[in-house]
Write a structure and sequence with these properties.
The structure is a single chain. The chain has 12 helices and 17 strands. It is of the alpha/beta class. It has 2 domains: 143 residues, Alpha-Beta Complex (Aspartate Aminotransferase, domain 1); 229 residues, Aspartate Aminotransferase, domain 2 (3-Layer(aba) Sandwich). Strand 1 and strand 2 form a beta hairpin. The longest helix is centred in the N-terminal third of the chain and has 19 residues. The structure holds pyridoxal-5'-phosphate (PLP). Pyridoxal-5'-phosphate binds next to helix 5.
Length: 399
């Protein structure tokens, strides 16, 4: 069968969950991907903030092949070598003491919610409510969708999991107003990714930490998108000097290999055997990749590079905003968004695709940048030169 026919057939056989571009990606290297027609794409989506080291980096290929030649899969019932090495490396580089490995962000968050509820049962007279924030995104299992509380999901898959209340992001009073004897945790992203790149303020984060300490409430940080150098520090919490009790990680953790982690402070080592688990927890291939990715991020100080490139992006966008309708440039490191003056972000994203640039319209009026963390200044310039063609020029003569 020819490719167009194969695509047509797949469209009749895959469950419809998303609209795909009519293109088949075949290979990738650095910050670029190639389709089966040989067209090249400069990638500012990065597999949705995943491919922190770029496409098919040697480090991941080597880790995978070396481990695959030894042992692809053991079982969560046994230790495996990369698991032992990686666990230590990860724990030693965070403020958390314990880790449970899983495969996706939603699964890690589901585990975080269960861990908080377990704490409520054991230490807080059965408290179970978790306060989340407006514009949050925590995943697509039924419970993480319930935690997310997106308006467009309101009537979907009813009845939802009970026990979530939503406060306003960056509004400490609105959180305080929801705290009651049933509250066991507050859960948020330090920089909201899917919500349009909204950065928590220092005051909000510190206020939440203080509130949690005063009321014996757990602070859960969803760092699925912000972890592993994405925001210019290894973890988002490091921007605020505020430590979470529970942290969840995915996306960049495996550089493209499915891996996630639920991390917690020592006092939360309270699961009993059987409370939590997964067939692929601590899977050897995932552990080997996770270790290789983190080691590379540390050895090459890629967080610092992400911070530098983020600053360059901010400067370049500020410069561009003198001539084009760009404002509300926001974000840290290489998780950045900006508004384009009107509802043309989707149109810009499509035009850029035709020009060989992958860029996400995170809102009808905002573009989001989340490229591999190894991006260079010249590749940023290349992206801006493409985007600029579709921005609205400021007409200084028209008043
Ligand atoms: C902050 C955050 N949490 C959770 C998730 C869900 O992760 P996954 O798609 O790996 O389940 C995402 C995905 O975009 C995310 O950005």
């Amino acid at each position: 069968m020819q490719l167009p026919e194969l695509i047509k057939t797949a469209d009749t056989q895959l469950l419809t969950v998303t609209q795909r571009q009519n293109v088949v990606m075949q290979s990738g290297s650095g910050v670029r991907m190639k389709d089966t027609e040989g067209n090249e794409y400069l990638d500012f989506v990065g597999g949705w903030a995943v491919t922190c080291l770029g496409h098919s980096p040697k480090i991941i290929v080597d880790a995978l092949t070396e481990q695959a030649n030894k042992l692809v899969n053991s079982s969560p019932s046994y230790y495996n070598l990369p698991m032992l090495e990686y666990t230590k490396l990860l724990v030693d580089n965070t403020c958390l003491d314990r880790v449970f490995f899983a495969s996706s962000g939603a699964e890690a968050n589901e585990g975080a919610i269960k861990l908080a509820r377990k704490y409520g049962q054991k230490q807080k007279d059965g408290a179970y409510e978790i306060i989340t924030t407006t514009n949050a995104f925590h995943g697509r299992t039924l419970t993480t969708m319930s935690a997310t509380g997106k308006a467009i999901w309101k009537d979907l898959y009813e009845p939802k999991t009970k026990g979530f209340k939503q406060a306003e992001f960056n509004n400490l009073d609105s959180v305080r107003a929801l705290v009651n004897k049933n509250t066991v945790a507050i859960m948020l992203e330090p920089v909201q990714g899917e919500g349009g790149v909204n950065v928590a303020t220092q005051e909000f984060m510190q206020g939440l930490r203080d509130l949690c300490d005063q009321e014996n409430i757990l602070l859960i940080l969803d760092e699925v998108q912000t972890g592993f150098g994405r925001t210019g520090k290894l973890f988002g919490y490091q921007h605020f000097d505020v430590e979470p009790d529970i942290m969840t990680l995915a996306k960049g953790i495996g550089g493209g290999f499915p891996l996630s982690a639920l991390m917690a402070k020592e006092f939360l080592n309270i699961f009993e055997a059987g409370d939590q688990g997964a067939t692929y927890s601590s899977q050897p291939l995932a552990m080997a990749v996770g270790k290789a990715v983190l080691q590379e991020l540390l050895d090459e100080n890629i967080s610092a590079h992400s911070e530098l490139m983020g600053e360059y992006l901010h400067q370049s966008l500020n410069e561009l905003s003198k001539d084009y309708a760009i404002d509300n440039i926001r974000g840290h490191g290489l998780l950045i968004a900006f508004d384009v003056g009107s509802d043309i972000a989707g149109h810009i994203s499509k035009q850029c695709f035709s020009d060989g640039l992958l860029i996400n319209a995170c809102k009808s009026y905002s573009l989001r940048l989340m490229p591999p963390l190894i991006i260079s200044k010249s590749e940023i310039d290349e992206m801006l030169a493409i985007v600029r063609q579709y921005l609205t020029p400021i007409n200084y003569n028209a008043v």
